[in-house]
Amino acid sequence: MTGRIITSDACVAEGADWLAKAEPRFARAMEATGPLPLRLKPDGFTALFDAIIGQQVSTQSARAIWARLEAAGLTDAEAVLIATEEDLRACGLSRQKIRYAHALAHARIDYAALPQMKDAQVIATLTAVQGIGTWTAEIYAMFSLGRADVFAHGDLALQEAARRLLDLEERPKEKKMRQIAADWAPWRSVAARILWAYYRVSTTREGIR
Fold first, then answer.
1. Which of 4, 79, 133, 156 allows an S-S link to 148, with CB 3.0 to 4.6 Å?
2. Cα→Cα distances 109→10, 100, 106, 128, Å
3. Where in the chain is CATH 1.10.1670.40?
4. Phi then psi for 179, rounded to 5 degrees?
5. What is the pTM of this model?
6. Which residues pair with 147 in a beta bridge?
7. What span, in angstroms and rounded, lies between the C-alpha atoms of 75 and 98?
8. pLDDT tens across 149-167, in order?
9. Distance between CA atoms of 84 and 107, rounded to whole angstroms?
């Protein structure tokens, strides 16, 4: 069994209601944030490639690079497989991300099989590919596969939002964040949506693209 799948705004609202009852400070956060975004995205190679592009660059830079890739017709696996390093560099990819792009294209992930896998299997399958870390795999599981109980524990925006909302003395590191988020099962993906939204209203920076 893969667990609950988020498919609509109603699913997000159900999870948010559960979380607000389990942790009243989530209710306070949602008073500040308003309705939560659904955030569902397509699955497959393009979604993962887009996530790789967004690693360690600003949202604006990632969008610009992706726009150039789209204009060059270099957003699907087959195109990336035959693209030269010069082709990808011209779109703004660093040498490291060019390696990651080729690694992803060569990996031949069975994307159709991922929805039937358990969360841990999805994460393990994706992180076996060079350039896909745990954060990227978790984001894919949450938004491309709609998993309701996945949380990006290493995400700095989530950690900082948790610190602010829960009045913690310091930003929780990944291990501590896992302990805290365990109480939010089976709706940890919705908890992440709340915290990212809370992060944006409590700071002037964006959480994720």
1. 4
2. 31, 14, 9, 10
3. 9-38+149-202
4. -65, -45
5. 0.90
6. 5
7. 13
8. 999 999 999 999 999 999 9
9. 17
CATH number at 9-38+149-202: 1.10.1670.40
Q: What is the mean pLDDT of residues 103-111?
A: 96
pLDDT, tens digit (0-9, with 9 covering 90-100), for 132-155: 999 999 999 999 999 999 999 999
Residue 194 corresponds to which tokens in the numbers above?
A: 């709340």
Please, are residues 59 and 209 in contact by the beta-carbon 8 Å criterion?
yes
Q: How many C-beta atoms lie closer than 10 Å to residue 77's C-beta?
A: 19
Confidence of residue 204 (pLDDT cuts 50, 70, 90): low
User: What pLDDT band is residue 176 in, cutting at 50, 70 and 90?
Assistant: very high
Q: What CA–CA distance (Å, rounded) separates 55 from 208? A: 10
List residues bridging with 5 in a β-sheet: 147
Q: Cis peptide before 42, with omega less than 30 degrees from 0?
A: no
**CB neighbour list of residue 96: distance below 8 Å, 6 or more residues apart:** 131
Domain 45-133 has CATH 3.20.20.150: no
| CATH 1.10.340.30-classified regions of the chain | 45-133
